[in-house]
Amino acid sequence: MPTGAKCHAVALRGKAYCYFHMRQRQPRRVPRGPEMKPLKLPVLRDRAAIRTTLTQVFDALDAHRIDSERADLRLWALQIASQNVDPAKSNSPKSPKARMKSMEAKRQEPTPDP
After folding, report:
1. Fewer C-beta neighbours within 10 Å, C or N terminus of the chain?
2. Domain containing residue 52
3. Which of 10, 92, 105 is nearest to 45 (CA)?
4. For residue 9, is pLDDT > 60?
5. What is the mean pLDDT of residues 48-64?
6. Tens digit of pLDDT for each residue in 26-38?
7. How many domains does the chain fold into?
């Protein structure tokens, strides 16, 4: 024990440790293989890429292809990326008000005389 006190639990049959300490001494199994393939995520240049990546992270978490710790790190990175992406370079469509303003501005531009 961390305090130096001896464990008073009964040792498992044929083993030197109790159930708890036997499990604690065993190496942790890290899942490998197809269920833990690394995610191929796009470069986070715009909001559309961030939305795509967000969906991929949620799908991988739901399918148990990544653990919650990796998902937390990716979601944190997505949050930072979404704060740093330039809204002017976003691929998302303009709001109706913004579209109307740009159409009005185009109409009010003087046309060159031939």
Report:
1. C
2. 32-90
3. 92
4. yes
5. 88
6. 776 655 555 566 7
7. 1
Which of 25, 6, 27 is closest to 15 using CA atoms? 25
Q: Are 65 and 39 in contact (CB under 8 A)?
A: yes
DSSP output for 86-107: -GGG--SPPPHHHHHHHHHHHH
Is there a domain that residue 81 lies in? yes
**Phi, psi at residue 112, to the nearest 5°?**
-70, 140
| Residue 78 belongs to some domain of the structure | yes
60 contact partners, CB below 8 Å, separation of at least 6: 39, 66, 71
Structural contact between residues 1 and 7, judged by C-beta atoms closer than 8 angstroms? yes
Q: Helix, strand, coil % (nearest 5) of the chain?
A: 50, 0, 50
Encoded amino acid at 31, one letter: P
Is the pLDDT assigned to residue 82 strictly greater than 70?
yes
